[in-house]
Specification:
Largest sheet: 6 strands, mixed
Distance between the termini: 37 Å
Number of helices: 0
């Protein structure tokens, strides 16, 4: 299984970005996919996740109301729409997946993608 993340970049505070993550090698019909991030000098933290089958989404408090996670089943792709970006959103963003829903995704993903850098200048 490969998770290929893309869409990062350098933006100004208040701008928007959309990250994408394509899952190759299997589908996650009963699973979940999500995003984590790691800022310099900090631990990796949960950002958002979505249950693949029912579409129920969960967010970290720090991004709630600004970020939206969605999935395209036909493309086996999960997206993270990031609006009203702040300098504190600067981090490497990682896509992750779990075979069985979202309960295990937040604590112990089965699969990780490579990171994509998001830099927000103030």
């Amino acid at each position: 299984v490969q998770l290929q993340a893309s869409g990062g970049g350098l933006v100004q505070a208040g701008d928007s970005l959309r990250l994408s993550c394509v899952a190759a090698g299997r589908t996650f019909d009963s699973g979940g996919m999500g995003w984590f991030r790691q800022a310099p000098g900090k631990e990796r933290e949960f950002v958002a996740m979505i249950h693949w089958k029912v579409g129920l989404a969960y967010y970290a408090d720090s991004v709630k109301g600004r970020f939206t996670i969605s999935r395209d089943k036909a493309k086996n792709t999960v997206y993270l729409q990031m609006n009203s970006l702040k300098s504190e959103d600067t981090a490497v963003y990682y896509c992750a997946a779990h075979r069985f829903g979202t309960a295990g995704l937040r604590s112990a993903p089965d699969y990780w993608g490579q990171g994509t850098q998001v830099t927000v200048s103030s």
